[in-house]
């Protein structure tokens, strides 16, 4: 079989059977004449002009994959050669560096069976052969073909009319004399050429140490799992340190709630890894639920409770969380979330998530300032680790950047311990067992506040806690269901869903080949609702949702294995059974906890605003919407919070903004409805979401300007084995709904 040059191919005889038929279908396009000393960037530019580069995930160069077929004109399969069809398997990765593209003459002979069984390894950037190879099997041409030709190669769309997403191909021909009569087009994979053992492409995304579906080994799974959860320690354990004392709970209650949160977080993370979106996302107590919890805690009905105040408020929170979680599950399982996704875009998500962190500015440093000699060094230490020492690598790991929060807390806690034992916070003749309200000596009154917030031995949880205790459902009693609190949690669960949508999209760009389908997002939201129901039954005080900080953790740890997240969750469950662990965490001084939360809330604000990277950030439309949403989201709640003359005399200053539900300006005659409206309008995240949602969906703007989230289509995912392995349910759970679960 003789080798033909590009010129001879242009003059191929039209009488050649199938090639003639295909040539009649294709439009006449000026041929692309390749240069021998070409630049790969020029080929990529040609690919852009001809529609090969898609913007499926919102970024130029984002690689998504569907198979496409290429057939060389004038080549008849019946003449003894197989049609050089090309099956381009998924190229995982968001941005792929340009590689040298080698185009060489292909000559020689091939078996005339027409089976197309030839396989050839694809060279990586170092010239090594990769394990994954392109299989040149006969795939056939689908209907409604549309040709894009360069004189040598006819590329055909598949039958569903989808455009060919962008890939970065490595095109190579075998050298003369190697026995090939046709041109082979093969797709380069990642450097190193990882191969997934179960049949799909490797889930190893460029830039990630461990890919989504990688199994680095038992020891590495333990290490990476613990690493992942340690970096999220601030989000997982510090919320009870704020809530339980405000509810009138004891140190033992705080330790129990912390253990419960560890257990619920471990269980829900495992459930989400197997039955949710299957992205390596940690589920836990979110700051989204903290603001409504503080609103309910500071309601007028609970201010005068003295006996069993903690249990009564906890049961009220449990009932509200269960009702809100049922609404969230219905939102996901019914398919309403798929419709809502069309209205949720980065311009809505960014200010809403940012408002979640900004809502606690009145609590942050006012609470941390109760002991500035501990709080200020902690804040500075966290900033130094995350910003100034972030580039320092220890044994190949960015130690200070990954473990900034637990490392800073440990160092500052030891420092506070030395201050306590050194006599800096001596009681000076005052009894630590007398409540502050009963202290008669003025000198003791002035010193009592500092003693309570600065000393490291104030908590007695360690002395009273048992070694082993298993948190169990309904441990605080039967939940209490009220209309007003239930309606608040329903709206808050909607805010949590909006937050999760942005997190799903950001995480998918980091670790997967393409974003999930709307059906997968709906499945994740539905499972989050079920997980919040578990949190309500166990009594953790807050609902369970995807932690926004998780995307930051994935980015800095470069660990995206869902197996590692599951291993870490198992350790979390194990620690929850050891009551002493919760007791140790409960003994963290309040000022130290408030200090680290100042950093965590600021990080939530930054992560929320970073979502704007998917939009045109210089657009006046977007700038105005985000600015107005944030300003009104802070200003309108401030208006509602000023109607509380009684609260300002009873509550601490940092809890006054959360007491507006009982004393707000809305007076409809229905106390339940008044409480609900005043509570919702006093929460920044609710007002911000409402303003941003209305403005973004009514003010004209192009999809590119708005940065509209583009989710994968079910038919694209079904043709991409990599995406199926990323998002499809495991094992037998995927079989009954393999075609239904991924359908938008």
TrEMBL record:
<protein>
    <submittedName>
        <fullName>Xanthine/uracil permease family protein isoform 1</fullName>
    </submittedName>
</protein>
<dbReference type="InterPro" id="IPR006043">
    <property type="entry name" value="NCS2"/>
</dbReference>
<feature type="transmembrane region" description="Helical">
    <location>
        <begin position="281"/>
        <end position="299"/>
    </location>
</feature>
<keyword id="KW-0472">Membrane</keyword>
<feature type="transmembrane region" description="Helical">
    <location>
        <begin position="221"/>
        <end position="243"/>
    </location>
</feature>
<keyword id="KW-0812">Transmembrane</keyword>
<dbReference type="GO" id="GO:0005886">
    <property type="term" value="C:plasma membrane"/>
</dbReference>
<dbReference type="GO" id="GO:0022857">
    <property type="term" value="F:transmembrane transporter activity"/>
</dbReference>
<feature type="compositionally biased region" description="Polar residues">
    <location>
        <begin position="57"/>
        <end position="67"/>
    </location>
</feature>
<comment type="similarity">
    <text>Belongs to the nucleobase:cation symporter-2 (NCS2) (TC 2.A.40) family.</text>
</comment>
<feature type="transmembrane region" description="Helical">
    <location>
        <begin position="592"/>
        <end position="610"/>
    </location>
</feature>
<feature type="transmembrane region" description="Helical">
    <location>
        <begin position="622"/>
        <end position="640"/>
    </location>
</feature>
<feature type="transmembrane region" description="Helical">
    <location>
        <begin position="320"/>
        <end position="341"/>
    </location>
</feature>
<feature type="region of interest" description="Disordered">
    <location>
        <begin position="1"/>
        <end position="149"/>
    </location>
</feature>
<keyword id="KW-1133">Transmembrane helix</keyword>
<dbReference type="Pfam" id="PF00860">
    <property type="entry name" value="Xan_ur_permease"/>
</dbReference>
<feature type="transmembrane region" description="Helical">
    <location>
        <begin position="564"/>
        <end position="586"/>
    </location>
</feature>
<feature type="transmembrane region" description="Helical">
    <location>
        <begin position="378"/>
        <end position="396"/>
    </location>
</feature>
<feature type="transmembrane region" description="Helical">
    <location>
        <begin position="402"/>
        <end position="419"/>
    </location>
</feature>
<feature type="compositionally biased region" description="Basic and acidic residues">
    <location>
        <begin position="69"/>
        <end position="78"/>
    </location>
</feature>
<feature type="transmembrane region" description="Helical">
    <location>
        <begin position="255"/>
        <end position="275"/>
    </location>
</feature>
<feature type="transmembrane region" description="Helical">
    <location>
        <begin position="675"/>
        <end position="695"/>
    </location>
</feature>
<feature type="compositionally biased region" description="Basic and acidic residues">
    <location>
        <begin position="33"/>
        <end position="45"/>
    </location>
</feature>
<feature type="transmembrane region" description="Helical">
    <location>
        <begin position="347"/>
        <end position="366"/>
    </location>
</feature>
């Amino acid at each position: 079989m003789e080798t033909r040059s590009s010129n001879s191919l242009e003059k191929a005889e039209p009488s050649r059977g199938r090639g003639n038929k295909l040539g009649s279908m294709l439009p006449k396009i000026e041929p692309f004449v390749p240069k021998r000393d070409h630049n790969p960037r020029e080929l990529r530019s040609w690919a852009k002009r001809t529609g090969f580069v898609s913007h499926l995930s919102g970024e130029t160069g984002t690689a998504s994959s569907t198979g496409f077929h290429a057939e060389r004109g004038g080549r008849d399969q019946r003449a003894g050669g197989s049609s050089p069809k090309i099956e381009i398997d998924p190229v995982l990765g968001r941005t792929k560096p340009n590689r040298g593209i080698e185009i060489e003459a292909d000559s020689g002979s091939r078996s005339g069976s027409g089976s197309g069984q030839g396989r050839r390894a694809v060279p990586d950037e170092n010239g090594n052969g990769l394990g994954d190879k392109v299989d040149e099997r006969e795939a056939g041409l689908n209907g409604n073909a549309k040709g894009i030709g360069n004189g040598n190669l006819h590329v055909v769309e598949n039958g569903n009319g989808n455009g060919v997403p962008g890939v970065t191909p490595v095109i190579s021909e075998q050298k003369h004399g190697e026995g090939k009569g046709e041109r082979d087009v093969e797709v380069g994979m990642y450097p190193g050429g990882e191969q997934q053992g179960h049949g799909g492409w490797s889930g190893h995304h460029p830039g990630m140490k461990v890919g989504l579906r990688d199994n680095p080994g038992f020891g590495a799974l333990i290490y990476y799992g613990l690493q992942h959860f340690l970096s999220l320690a601030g989000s997982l354990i510090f919320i009870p340190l704020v809530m339980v004392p405000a509810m009138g709970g004891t140190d033992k209650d705080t330790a129990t709630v912390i253990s419960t949160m560890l257990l619920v977080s471990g269980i829900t993370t495992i459930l989400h890894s197997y039955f949710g979106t299957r992205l390596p996302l940690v589920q836990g107590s979110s700051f989204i639920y903290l603001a409504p919890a503080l609103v309910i805690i500071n309601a007028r009905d609970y201010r005068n409770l003295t006996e069993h105040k903690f249990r009564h408020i906890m049961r009220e929170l449990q009932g509200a969380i269960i009702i809100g979680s049922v609404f969230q599950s219905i939102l996901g399982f019914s398919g309403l979330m798929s419709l809502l996704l069309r209205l949720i875009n980065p311009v809505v998500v960014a200010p809403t998530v940012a408002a979640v962190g900004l809502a606690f500015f009145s609590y942050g440093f006012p609470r941390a300032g109760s002991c500035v000699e501990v709080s200020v060094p902690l804040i500075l230490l966290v900033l130094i680790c995350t910003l100034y020492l972030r580039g320092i690598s220890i044994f190949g790991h960015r130690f200070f950047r990954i473990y900034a929060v637990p490392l800073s807390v440990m160092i500052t806690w030891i420092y506070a311990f030395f201050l306590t034992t050194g006599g800096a916070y001596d009681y000076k003749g005052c009894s630590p067992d007398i409540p502050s309200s009963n202290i008669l000596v003025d000198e003791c009154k002035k010193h009592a506040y500092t003693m309570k917030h600065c000393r490291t031995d104030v908590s007695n949880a360690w002395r009273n806690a048992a070694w082993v205790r298993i948190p169990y459902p309904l441990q605080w009693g039967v939940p209490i269901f009220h209309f007003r609190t239930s309606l608040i949690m329903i709206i808050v669960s909607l805010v949590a869903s909006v937050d999760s949508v942005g997190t799903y999209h950001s995480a998918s760009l980091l670790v997967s080949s393409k974003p999930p389908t709307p059906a997968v997002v709906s499945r994740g939201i539905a499972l989050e609702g079920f997980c919040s129901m578990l949190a309500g039954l166990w009594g953790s005080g807050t609902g369970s949702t995807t932690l926004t900080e998780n995307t930051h953790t994935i980015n800095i740890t470069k660990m995206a294995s869902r197996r590692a997240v599951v291993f870490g969750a198992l350790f979390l469950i194990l620690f929850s059974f050891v009551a002493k662990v919760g007791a140790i965490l409960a003994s963290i001084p309040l000022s130290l906890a408030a200090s680290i939360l100042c950093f965590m809330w600021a990080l939530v604000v930054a992560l929320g605003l970073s979502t704007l990277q998917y939009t045109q950030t210089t657009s006046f439309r977007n700038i105005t919407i985000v600015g107005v949403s944030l300003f009104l989201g802070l200003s309108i709640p401030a208006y509602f919070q000023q109607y509380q003359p009684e609260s300002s005399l009873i509550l601490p200053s940092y809890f006054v903004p959360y007491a507006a539900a009982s004393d707000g300006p809305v007076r409809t005659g229905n106390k339940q409805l008044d409480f609900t409206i005043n509570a919702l309008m006093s929460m920044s995240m609710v007002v911000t979401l409402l303003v941003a949602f209305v403005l973004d969906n009514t003010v004209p703007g192009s999809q590119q300007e708005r940065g509209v989230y583009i989710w994968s289509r079910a038919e694209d995912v079904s043709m991409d084995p990599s995406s199926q392995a990323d998002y499809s349910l495991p094992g037998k759970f995927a079989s009954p709904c393999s075609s239904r679960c991924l359908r938008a």
